[in-house]
């Protein structure tokens, strides 16, 4: 651990001993949670979330969502810049000067039909907030309101990052390229978790989520009549063997960080029962927890597809679609930020509700931010164990337990406030453009 990290931890431990400070700064996590649980505050966040849920928008199409965010920021008197990455919004609360710390929420929905029947069901056919991004926006707006109401306590500037296109569109990368992280020292993000109990949080230091990428392969043979297959070169047979061989690349190791996954989820070929097609298209994703393993897996996929196709006298072309669907790096949490998160969360909800977790094969474009600056990502529980089980994300039956909203808003606000309080003396603003040129 570097010297600056040791300094940070010493300052953090010192701060945690100030249980009765005269200015009340040491108790802000529980204060912020109490504030977020006020009925008027809670009802407002729920209303925001439901408006977004009724009108889902896909990546880089979040114009109405962005408009709603800007309207709410205007009501709070919070300055912001727009647009970033087509629809993104970046707000600023505090002194306008260093240090800068960022909080992030993603805005986009998924191209799927909602199957949950309720008053605020999606009004847009085949579009649904099935991953909780509507709640993420509501919670970040909630954090913004808390921070704006307590802005005198901020010893720097909180940057609010409302980001488009997390679902495969690498909106985080576009936000970075547009300058959203200028002079930002660290960034925090969260995701709702349908399996984790309400009022609990979970994360881990190091790799948390996997690197991921897409691939598509066109396997070409020679079509013909099903009655005389000996005169054809069957690409369906070749593609089937390719898929079987790709499954051998899947590795579930004792150490989860050594695991890797390849999933073929697309198979298109043929349009008649009695005609062997000329070609078949397959596609899917691949995942690993390190850049090195991910790179090796990519190479092996191409070798397996082309090699197995050749065994069956077919040709294959593999496209990893990096321009349309950029590879996501692994989501990796800094150890010192993990310890900081544990301290803040424990102060708010109790140490027994701050859980450690195993790494997951899911991916997140929050990882692009972490490649640029220290970043921390965590999961927020929302399962009420006295009610029906919630469905997992990306299900047409996915639902949000809105009782989780105050926890997310208060944690966001607390993480930013505490970071500025403890690290202000350690942050040196680099030369160049500054966020305080507002």
Automatic annotation (TrEMBL):
Q: Does the UniProt entry include the keyword Hydrolase?
A: yes
The residues the entry assigns to the signal sequence are 1-21
Q: Does the keyword Signal apply?
A: yes
**Cofactors that this protein relies on:** Mn(2+)
- Describe cofactor binding as the record notes it: The Mn(2+) ion enhances activity.
Q: InterPro entries this protein is in?
A: Amidohydrolase, Bact_exopeptidase_dim_dom, ILR1-like_Hyd, Peptidase_M20, Peptidase_M20_dimer
Q: Which GO terms describe its biological process?
A: auxin metabolic process
Q: Which domain of life is it from?
A: Eukaryota
An annotated GO cellular component: endoplasmic reticulum
Query: SUPFAM superfamilies given for it?
Result: Bacterial exopeptidase dimerisation domain, Zn-dependent exopeptidases
Keyword entries, A-Z: Hydrolase, Manganese, Metal-binding, Signal
User: What would be one Pfam family of this protein?
Assistant: Peptidase_M20
Per its record, what are the GO molecular function terms?
IAA-Ala conjugate hydrolase activity; metal ion binding
Q: Which CDD domains match?
A: M20_IAA_Hyd
Identify the residues that the record assigns to the Peptidase M20 dimerisation domain, covering every copy.
217-307
Task: Please give the Gene3D superfamilies that the UniProt record associates with this protein.
Answer: 3.30.70.360, Zn peptidases (3.40.630.10)
Indicate the family of this protein: Belongs to the peptidase M20 family.
**Annotated protein name in UniProt:** IAA-amino acid hydrolase ILR1-like 4
Q: Which organism is it from?
A: Turnera subulata
Its gene?
ILL4
């Amino acid at each position: 651990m570097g010297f600056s990290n040791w300094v940070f931890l010493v300052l953090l431990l010192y701060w945690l001993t100030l249980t009765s400070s005269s200015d009340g700064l040491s108790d802000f996590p529980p204060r912020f949670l109490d504030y977020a649980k006020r009925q008027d505050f809670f009802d407002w966040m729920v209303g925001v979330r439901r408006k977004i849920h009724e009108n889902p928008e896909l990546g880089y199409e979040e114009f109405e969502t962005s408009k709603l965010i800007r309207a709410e920021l205007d009501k709070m008197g919070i300055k912001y810049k727009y647009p970033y990455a087509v629809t993104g919004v970046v707000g600023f609360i505090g002194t306008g000067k260093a240090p800068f710390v960022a909080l992030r929420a993603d805005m986009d929905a998924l191209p799927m039909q909602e199957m949950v029947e309720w008053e605020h069901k999606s009004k847009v056919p085949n579009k649904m907030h099935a991953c909780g991004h509507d709640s993420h926006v509501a919670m970040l707006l909630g954090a913004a309101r808390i921070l704006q109401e307590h802005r005198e306590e901020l010893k720097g500037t909180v940057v609010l990052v409302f980001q488009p296109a997390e679902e495969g569109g690498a909106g985080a990368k576009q936000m970075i390229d547009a300058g959203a992280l200028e002079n930002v020292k660290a960034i925090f993000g969260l995701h709702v978790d349908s399996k984790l109990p309400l009022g609990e949080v979970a994360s881990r230091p190091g790799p948390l989520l996997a690197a991921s990428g897409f691939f598509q392969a066109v396997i070409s043979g020679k079509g013909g009549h099903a009655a005389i297959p000996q005169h054809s070169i069957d690409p369906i047979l070749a593609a089937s063997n390719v898929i079987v061989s790709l499954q051998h690349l899947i590795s579930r190791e004792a150490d989860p960080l050594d695991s890797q996954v390849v999933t073929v989820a697309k198979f298109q070929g043929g349009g008649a029962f009695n005609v062997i097609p000329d070609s078949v298209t397959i596609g899917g994703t691949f995942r690993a927890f390190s850049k090195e393993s991910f790179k090796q897996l990519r190479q092996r996929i191409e070798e397996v597809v082309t090699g197995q196709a050749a065994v069956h006298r077919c040709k294959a072309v593999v496209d990893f679609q990096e321009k349309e669907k950029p590879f996501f790096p692994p989501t990796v949490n800094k150890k010192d930020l993990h310890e900081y998160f544990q301290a803040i969360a424990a102060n708010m909800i109790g140490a027994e509700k701050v859980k450690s977790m195993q790494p997951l094969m899911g991916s997140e474009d929050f990882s692009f931010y972490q490649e640029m600056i220290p970043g921390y990502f965590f999961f927020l529980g929302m399962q009420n164990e006295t009610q029906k089980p919630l469905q997992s994300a990306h299900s047409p039956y996915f639902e949000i337990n809105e009782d989780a909203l105050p926890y997310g808003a208060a944690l966001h606000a607390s993480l930013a406030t505490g970071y500025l309080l403890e690290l202000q003396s350690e942050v040196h603003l680099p030369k160049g453009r500054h966020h305080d040129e507002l």
